[in-house]
């Protein structure tokens, strides 16, 4: 069945933003389907936040158009305000207020009152697991609980679409996983989520993605389709005796042209190397590391991770 505009929560065409001579976002096109988690990936300064601000009507595009929930944002930004939620990188929670007081404040900002406000607050507390913290001062909460509170405040008015800008930055892995469980709960209720992140394990859980670099979209699609279309060569995973020394040796050999390696990246105590010829490259890598008195350990061909593909695309 062909998609119609009603199937899409966001349609961006030729979206461009210039600040003087600097082009922050360069004529990008993308669509976000209703009821999906759409991930927007890119390094700091790549244009992620600028794109969100244009979609919210907070920044006027230099060129191009964007429709959000069927509304042309440039002409009618006020029509989407009560239909979307926004959790910025620095969500302004009030540290001296309790959890309940913060939710009450933001609920009133969205025009909620009396029984409806109380019902929404109770639902938000239950959804985020904050019932036992409702009278705790916000400054007393851990980073993970603060993020849950920030999300709860952003969805009090039951938005159809929520924008999350680096929502789990600086949060521990367990809290990040719990936060994503909440996002899947929202998706189950029909909410669409547009999220920026630099955590590749989170990106794997998005339905579809777009990679942005220097204001340009360089890849888009599902995590699987991006891996299949963007990855050139195969990935060798090396478990050397000294990973820090080994990666220096391999990068030096790559830069000098001694080894034909497309990419060399450190993954904790492991190294991922992207190559065209697996057998020839494995032998050459073992020889290079052996000459540096480094035990190459096991070398195995592995399925490329989204991070491997992201790094390859950035190159």
The helical percent reads 25-40%
CATH superfamily of the largest domain: P-loop containing nucleotide triphosphate hydrolases
Average per-residue pLDDT, rounded, comes to 90
**According to CATH, what is the class of the largest domain?**
Alpha Beta
Q: Please indicate the count of domains.
A: 2
Provide the low-confidence segments as ranges.
none
Content of β-strand? 25-35%
Q: What's the order of the H and E elements?
A: EEEHEEEHHHEHEHEEHEHEEHEH
Can you put this structure into words, describing what you see?
The strands form 3 sheets. A 6-stranded mixed sheet has the order 6-7-8-3-9-10, sandwiched between helices. It has a 4-stranded antiparallel sheet with strand order 2-1-4-5, covered by helices on one side. The radius of gyration is 23 Å and the shape is globular. The protein starts with 7 loop residues before the first strand and ends with a helix. Helix 3 (114-128) packs antiparallel against helix 4 and helix 7 (223-230) crosses helix 10 (306-314). The chain has 2 domains: 5-228, 3-Layer(aba) Sandwich (Rossmann fold), CATH 3.40.50; 232-314, 2-Layer Sandwich (Alpha-Beta Plaits). It has 315 residues and is of the alpha/beta class. 37% of the residues are buried. The mean pLDDT is 90. Helices cover 35% and strands 27% of the residues. It is built from 10 helices and 14 strands.
Q: How would you summarize what this structure contains?
A:
The protein has helices at residues 48-55, 99-109, 114-128, 143-154, 173-188, 200-203, 223-230, 243-256, 278-291, 306-314; strands spanning 8-19, 22-33, 37-41, 63-68, 71-72, 84-87, 161-165, 192-197, 208-213, 216-221, 234-239, 263-267, 270-275, 298-302.
